[in-house]
Amino acid sequence: MSLSGRYVIAGIGHTAFGKLPGHDTVSLNVEACRHALDDAGVDKSLVDAVFVKVPTSAHQFMYGQKVAEALGITPRMGGCWDQGGAANITLLSFAIMAIEAGQCDVALVCYADNPAPGTARCTAVRAATMRPTAGSPPPPATR
Question: How many other C-beta atoms can be found within 10 angstroms of the C-beta atom of residue 127?
Answer without folding.
Answer: 27
